[in-house]
Specification:
Structural Genomics Hypothetical 15.5 Kd Protein In mrcA-pckA Intergenic Region, Chain A, alpha+beta, single chain, 9 strands, Pseudouridine synthase, 3-stranded antiparallel sheet
Amino acid sequence: MNEGRPVVREYVPDALAGERVDRVVSFITGASRSIVSKCINNGEVLCNDAVVRKSSQKVTSGDLIVVNSPLLDSGLEIEADSKIIVPIIHEDQDLIVVDKPSGLVVHPATSHKKGTLVNGLLSIYPEIASIGEPSRPGIVHRLDKGTSGLLLVALSAQGYLGLSEQLQRRAIKRVYTSLVLGHLESDKGVIEAPLGRDPKSPTRRT
């Protein structure tokens, strides 16, 4: 692949396992499906180091998706924004742990260029601009806009590589808590009900 072009690398999370690769690439890059289709046709999308030939190819949890294409270059410049509140609960020389609030987008994309967590982080840690991917510096994993919780952010190249490797090995455990409306008869139990993916949203199940 050519040097100097926008590159996105991300491991497929459990929530996207079984999805078409074009939908996954669209989700992780913020690019439209038509742009993603062009990237695939140009041989610019890899899954586990193999060139993706079909948009309909299915992915599994833990697959490494790499997109290296000039089509991803939207000319987006990420500006620091000190107005964005960044709750930090841990910091060392290689990483920080952020308590991301609900409603805050993690990194800029064509649909939301400002007001993200990354904009706020750059005002506190300008050095992360060169860590990881230019479009989302320091970010090794994400939480949805509506999800609150702890987010790991790399402050150094060593931290970025270490966190990425641990996420790939699933050495980092993630625990989610949800709010349920109504009265539950028991504190423990198993819910068995049909569950499928929303055709309009790859990460939503209905």
